[in-house]
Specification:
By secondary structure, the protein is an alpha/beta fold. Helix content is about 35%, strand content about 35%. It is built from five helices and eight strands.
Amino acid sequence: MEISERTKKVAKQNKINIESVIGIDADREVISLYSITGSDKSSINYHMSGFKAKPFSSEFYDKLGSVLGQFREDHPNIPMQKVTIVLPDSAVLTDMINLPAINKKAVDSSLAASLSNIYGNSSEIKFNRMMVNQSKQMVTYAIAGVRKDILLNLQRACADHQIGVGNITYASSAATKPARK
């Protein structure tokens, strides 16, 4: 099903987002793509394709490229400037790190040193951090990390098919965010 010009016009007037998602399921060896306009269930476009390559190998990226190309060919009118990519949990490092509560600059360098000490290849990982607890003595950070080569190759595969990446998340995070609202 294609998004009609009328649907796009109404979406633009009402500032309704056309949400597109690329999901990678390493356990089931499936790449899923879908898009929806606002909350209009009749506008859903869905495509699923299996892959037999090791996740995030060059063969995997070849398959991802062909799946993205086929989806763009089948649905040329779907704008895909801010796609969300959902990684499998196995591709994401998560951790909690406790540090002594000191000034922000010292905490930042202490956190960087801790990550380097714990994960020897920390320069190859893109880390996101969020402070989850603070007391007079301790600061606790939730850490999520993904290998930089995975991020780069995913963005490259999308760019090759005129797909812009707006967000990269992981399965358990994506599943729990709606429950928090």
